[in-house]
C-alpha cells in the first residue's frame, strides 16, 4: 500500500518531538533573554572593542536555539540515555544559567566560569556525538563558535570592570 501525498501526515504530526524540542529550547531561551535583557548596569560597563551591538544577540540566539533543539532531538531519537544526550542536557542547564548570573545577578566572574563550562560541554557533545550522529555534532559547530566569542566577550568585560 502506498501513501499518496494528500494522505501523508502533516510535518507537525510526523515530528511532534522535534516541535517540542524547538518550542522548549527557543521558548525558554528567548524568555530568559527577555527577562534578563541588558539594562542600565550592562550599559554602564566598560566593554571590549569587539562587542557587537545589542540587536545582534536576539537573531543570533534564535538561530542557535533552533540548531541546539534539532541536535538535541536527533540525539534523543538515537539514544535517550547516551553520553551525548547527557551532555546536551548539561549544556542546556549551563546555557540557561548564564544570562541570569551575568545580567540579573551582575556577576561577570561567575558568569565567565559558567560560559567556560558551557563551552567545554559543547565541545564534549561535539566530540561524543561525532561518532554516533555527525549531523547533530555539525549543528553544534556554530554554537561552539558563538560561545567561544561570548567567552572572550565575557572575559573582556570581567577584566575591564
From TrEMBL:
Keywords: Membrane, Transmembrane, Transmembrane helix
Mode of membrane association: Multi-pass membrane protein
Subcellular location field: Membrane
Transmembrane segments: 12-35, 55-75, 87-105, 111-130, 137-160
Alphabetized Gene3D superfamilies for the sequence: TspO/MBR protein
PANTHER family found in the cross-reference section: PERIPHERAL-TYPE BENZODIAZEPINE RECEPTOR, TRANSLOCATOR PROTEIN
GO annotations of cellular component type: membrane
Name of a matching Pfam family: TspO_MBR
Main location, first listed in the record: membrane
Protein name listed in UniProt: TspO/MBR related protein
GO term, biological process aspect, one: tetrapyrrole metabolic process
Coiled coil: none
Similarity comment: family membership: Belongs to the TspO/BZRP family.
Superkingdom of the source species: Bacteria
Entries under InterPro entries matching the protein: TspO/MBR-related_sf (IPR038330), TspO_MBR (IPR004307)
Amino acid at each position: 500500500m502506498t501513501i499518496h501525498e494528500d494522505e501523508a501526515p502533516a510535518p507537525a504530526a510526523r515530528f511532534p518531538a522535534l516541535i517540542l524540542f524547538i518550542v522548549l529550547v527557543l521558548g525558554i531561551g528567548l524568555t530568559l533573554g527577555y527577562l534578563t535583557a541588558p539594562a542600565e548596569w550592562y550599559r554602564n560597563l566598560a566593554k571590549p572593542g569587539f562587542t557587537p551591538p545589542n540587536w545582534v544577540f536576539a537573531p543570533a540566539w534564535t538561530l542557535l536555539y533552533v540548531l541546539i533543539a534539532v541536535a538535541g532531538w536527533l540525539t534523543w531519537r538515537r539514544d535517550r540515555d547516551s553520553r551525548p544526550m547527557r551532555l546536551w542536557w548539561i549544556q542546556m542547564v549551563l546555557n540557561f544559567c548564564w544570562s541570569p548570573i551575568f545580567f540579573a545577578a551582575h556577576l561577570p566572574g561567575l558568569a565567565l566560569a559558567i560560559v567556560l563550562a558551557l563551552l567545554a560541554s559543547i565541545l564534549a557533545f561535539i566530540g561524543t556525538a561525532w561518532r554516533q550522529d555527525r549531523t547533530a555534532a555539525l549543528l553544534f559547530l556554530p554554537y561552539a563558535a558563538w560561545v567561544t566569542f561570548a567567552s572572550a566577550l565575557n572575559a573582556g568585560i570581567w577584566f575591564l570592570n
